[in-house]
Amino acid sequence: MATVTTISFELVGADGGPLRGEVRTAEGGRDRPAVVVCHGFKGFKDFCFFPHVAGRLARAGMTAVTFNFSGSGVGPDGESFSEPVRFSHATFSNDLRDIDIVVTHLRDGTLAHGVAHPTALGMLGHSRGGGTTLLYAGATPDLDAIVTWAAISTVHRWGEHELAAWRRAGSVDVVNKRTGLVLPLCTDILDDIDENSDILDIAAAAERVRCPWLIVHGDQDESVPVHEARYLHSLTGEGVSRMEIVPEGGHTFGVQHPWVGSAPPLDRAVDATVEWYVSYLL
């Protein structure tokens, strides 16, 4: 089995602070395609299955790039939410800028020492990161393949009463169920959605996707209902997307953080994803 090398990098993120990430590759990252991996809301590059997935991609002959969005709130230790102010001001638009920063450095061969520009480029996004992946792919016609896991189909995730209370208070508390940590989320994200509604229209972006797109979703997803996957699939042109509904798959496909090992739903999601990229990137 190929040995995977992990290379850390740090860039300047969309909010002006550090954008921290890692590159996993089996042979220095040269002369091979790359996949940029986007985590979801309250996620981070080392959350749950991401290192496992990145390792599988690297062993399959690709360069896997994982990173923390500048608004993730996760600090330099890669685990704790030690940057709550950054989390509180996170927006979809900043997420898109972060992706562009990473992709630009990757394409230029300046992301990390020993990692050359890729021969082809794919993206993988989970949950909110799946929606952001679609927004980026819809505006970037030269991507070669994408995969979304449990992707949201709209940025509008809150009801009217919740939004009104949020606006009145100026922030809403976001609770990490795993740790009990409470993080305030300011109204920046709401302002961003209001001011950039056209740019942040995930459904419209999905209609513009032209590269091969695999839609993976658990049929028991408790956070993003599976009907959102079916809706996204219905928006694509003939032959663009394929839908993989994972039986007994929840939002994280049967696994939890911290990572203690895989589960059959995740195995199915990972196998389908690797096969997709082998078909369209290698």
Distance between the termini: 18 Å
Q: Indicate the structural class.
A: alpha/beta
Oligomer: single chain
* Beta-strand proportion: 15-25%
CATH fold group = Rossmann fold
- Major sheet: 8 strands, mixed
The topology string of helices and strands comes to EEEHEHHEHEHEEHHEHEH
CATH architectural arrangement: 3-Layer(aba) Sandwich
What ranges have pLDDT less than 50 throughout 5 or more consecutive residues?
A: none
Radius of gyration: 18 Å
Helix count, per DSSP? Answer: 9
Total domain units: 1
Helix content: 25-40%
CATH superfamily: Alpha/Beta hydrolase fold, catalytic domain
Indicate the overall shape: globular
**CATH class division:** Alpha Beta
In the sheet with the most strands, the strands line up as 1-2-4-3-5-6-9-10
Number of strands: 10
Mean pLDDT: 96
